[in-house]
């Protein structure tokens, strides 16, 4: 008869937790050498742990801030009827200030974000043209810092797919995101708005690389908008924006898939805590005698603060290159 006394004579259970766990798994599954498998699993977990910290933690922090923004907006919406609209008369002004402080704090802590040259932004309307990194997070930091420092709010033109993303309707409304037909942009500028647009759009975000080549193709609608609205164009560039977040845009099949469905299907990775500095160039004034094609070329060849480019790790040219 086999009893508990007999089983205890087979030897003491090892004190090591890993060995004890391997012993239990071996008894339960009947698989031999379970301790070797467990040791290998523990080894892999230690090897992959730094990668999890590098890739998962930054994304978790970003989405925490994003979801916090949505939560604060819903709370604000419930209470906004009894809140002061502020000096701007904008019912969402308090929410904009709240989000600005949240995202400015994220930019300060995670990227040591800096904004240079904001004195080049006039008090009146203007069209800001910027290079589109893999993520628009640098624009969020710019928008937040500008509102805090200058009490100026900048609207932005976004791709149509943004308006189809679930749960973002209120966020888009508060940020002043526009779909961007030419007539709407001209009307906004004539009302005195500050408007930002990236001619390269999603294509530039996904498929440009660490050489910072712009991908505008034949797009010149932004130039026509500036001409029709009679406003200056202000170039903007964020240093290291490609070093912070990267994409797998070099994979040809992903490029073909994007051109077919026009959705951002290219995976991103990184969210590294690199230093981000946004540089605002001197305005290109309105010229009634210039065509949209000529103005587009002028913006493409415009030299932003040379320091912004020379300080890049690759020391790329100070001139934007055609993609």
TrEMBL record:
Residues 126-241 form the Phospholipid/glycerol acyltransferase domain. Pfam families: Acyltransferase. It comes from the Eukaryota. The keyword Cytoplasm does not apply. SMART domains: PlsC. Keywords: Membrane, Transmembrane, Transmembrane helix. One of its GO terms (cellular component) is membrane. InterPro entries: Plipid/glycerol_acylTrfase (IPR002123). The chain crosses the membrane at residues 47-73. GO terms for molecular function: acyltransferase activity. This is Transmembrane protein 68. It comes from Coturnix japonica.
């Amino acid at each position: 008869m086999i009893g508990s006394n007999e089983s205890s004579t087979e030897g003491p259970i090892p004190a090591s937790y890993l060995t004890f766990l391997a012993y239990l798994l071996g008894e339960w599954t009947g698989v031999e050498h379970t301790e070797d498998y467990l040791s290998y699993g523990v080894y892999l977990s230690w090897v992959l742990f730094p990668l999890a910290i590098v890739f998962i933690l930054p994304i978790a922090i970003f989405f925490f801030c994003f979801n916090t923004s949505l939560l604060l907006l819903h709370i604000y919406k419930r209470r906004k009827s009894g809140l002061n609209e502020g000096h701007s008369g904008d019912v969402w002004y308090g929410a904009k200030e709240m989000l600005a402080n949240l995202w400015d704090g994220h930019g300060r802590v995670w990227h040591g974000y800096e904004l240079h040259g904001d004195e080049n932004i006039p008090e009146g309307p203007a069209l800001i043209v910027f290079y589109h990194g893999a993520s628009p997070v640098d624009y969020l930091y710019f928008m937040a810092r500008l509102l805090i420092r200058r009490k100026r709010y900048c609207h932005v033109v976004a791709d149509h797919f943004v308006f189809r993303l679930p749960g973002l309707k209120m966020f888009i409304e508060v940020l002043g995101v526009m779909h961007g037909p030419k007539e709407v942009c001209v009307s906004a500028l004539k009302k005195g708005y500050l408007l930002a647009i990236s001619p390269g759009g999603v294509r530039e975000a996904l498929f440009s690389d660490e050489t910072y080549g712009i991908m505008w193709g034949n797009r010149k609608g932004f130039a026509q908008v500036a001409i029709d609205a009679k406003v200056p164009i202000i170039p903007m560039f964020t240093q290291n924006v490609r070093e912070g977040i990267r994409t797998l845009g070099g994979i040809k099949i992903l490029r073909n898939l994007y051109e077919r469905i026009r959705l951002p299907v290219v995976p991103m990775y990184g969210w590294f805590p690199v230093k981000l500095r946004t540089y605002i160039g001197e305005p290109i004034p309105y010229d009634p005698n210039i065509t949209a094609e000529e103005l587009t070329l002028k913006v493409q060849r415009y030299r932003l603060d040379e320091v912004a480019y020379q300080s890049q790790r690759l020391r790329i040219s100070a001139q934007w290159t055609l993609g």
